[in-house]
Amino acid sequence: MFYNEIHTRIRYIFLVIIICLLITIGRVFYIQVFQYQKLSTLAQSLWSRELPISADRGEIVDRKGKILATNITTTSLVVIPSQIKNPERVASDLATILKSDYSDMLAHITKKTSIERVHPEGRQLDYATAEKIASLNYDGVYLVKESKRYYPYDTVLAHVLGYVGIDNQGLSGLELYYDKYLTGENGSIKYFSDGKGHRLQLSEIYEAPTSGITLQLTIDLDLQLAIENELDKAMAKYNADGAIALAMNPQTGEVLAMSSRPNFNPNEYQKASVEVINRNLPIWMTFEPGSTFKIISLTSAIEEKAINLFEDTFTDTGAIKVDDATLHCWKHGGHGTQTYLNVVENSCNTGFVSIGLKLGTETLMKYIHEFGFGQKTGIDLNGEGTGILFKTQNMGPVETATTAFGQGISVTPIQQIRAVSAAINGGNLYTPYLVGAFRESETGTVIKQVTPRLEKQVISSDTSKLVRFALESVVANGTGKNAYIENYRIGGKTGTAQTVENGVYSASKYILSFVGFMPANNPQIIVYVAIQNAKGVVQYGGTVSAPIAKNILTSAINILDIKPSLDVMPRVYTWLDTKYVKLPNVLNQDLKTAQKSLKGFKIEYNGQGNKVVYQMPQADTYVKEGSTVVLMLN
Fold first, then answer.
1. Tens digit of pLDDT for each residue in 245-295?
2. Scanning 49, 86, 156, 480, which has the fewest C-beta atoms within 10 Å of its C-beta?
3. 93 is in which domain, residue-wise?
4. Alpha carbons 245 and 387: distance in angstroms, whole number
């Protein structure tokens, strides 16, 4: 009996041992087969160290591939405290080279960490400084590659591009808006050390960094440079408080150029004030638009058939009574009786008051909202303003009247140019945008192509056609004549708005603006220019801003390859203007007849004979009176 009991216990014990052994074997098998990789990685992490290699940000290029933002390679200082044998000496030498505080450097070197990045004094070092540190040849002191953002054109397109911080993170502009696309994935050099941090003689592992995505903008650098040049000249000539210029393709919403003054250099953003850096005026600044806003009132009235441009008339006496308020035209004594086309050409305030009253408050405000005012346009930039409009329910006849000619409300330049684009492009309201494509950094392969985003059709194409005609007539016959370019169809509208200071209108400070487009029959570019508080000049948009817009549009002719037109609207000249006349066609005429046709011109001849076989400039183009015409004879 006793023997059987012992025997049973032994068998149970033996069974338990076998079960435990099986469990142990199973566990070992599980660890070796199924968890090997995980545990191996954890083990390596205990004795591996990484020297960081920063990735390049994606480049930013213009629509033709010209680089606007790129990267340059610099070096940065990192230390491994456990490998440094004489911390005091190393700290002293590094502090001397970097011209930094010894105690701060010693704190870096003796910090209880595996790897310490010396920040900020050891970041993005120049070549000479890096060479001095390398020549010390100290254990535990390493120089690693670091990427630094670089803008090759300095101040050009500064507010749009933005800038990055020392850790290569976007802080404003496109750099901030598209930071997650531009930011690459950092790499490293892995090495191995023992438990005390001493480096082991094992092979290093290099993990290459991955660059960010390249942004291809809708911006045309050549046109951008032309705008930058014009704004610089305007600031110098008029000693202005500020200046804004925008160019866009009205058929798509692609922003072709954008700039403002004051400006800054993103390579040295630390030298600029926070206000200058963070205020991209073309999308941020709100101000009364003045007469450029009359385009919206005009368009609404034509769409609603409230006026007939050619048949309906209005008599301007210089002032108009609305309720208890008397509103004045800019011309003392008024323009007299005129068609509504003349009202537009003359930018007659009282005429536009009548247009606003004909439309009525609700209809006028309906179109203003339809054209996108009072809300952000959705452009791919941070910091966009919304402007300020009257609430429809709080408006009376006076508010309606002043709104119709652009007073009492505030808008942003990007709202203005988008709305006018819709008025002239057939009635389509597009979302303006700056990035046209996302490209792979190494190959340039398009990852994503951005297409124009049509929000809605605001007016009919017939209305748009009439608006284009009226605005072309403004440049040929009215207040916008200083934007006229011979042989090209230009449309536009001037604007002169008083600035508001401490809640009241300034008697001497104005924002002088002009919006213009070409060709007037099929617009390919629209330009908006605004100059703030120009000094030493007559305060009219047609005097200051229209010539600037003309220069920008003239540059655009070659940049965008815009062809001349033979059916331009002839300009009305004054005795002060340089006159242009249409060149007669003398091809196939005999020499004597051609000479009579070209009376008043200087003639140069090529060849001999009595018949004209070629003339330059070509027939029906506008040339200066008395200019030279070359005739080739048979």
1. 999 999 999 999 999 999 999 999 999 999 999 999 999 999 999 999 999
2. 86
3. 49-215
4. 18
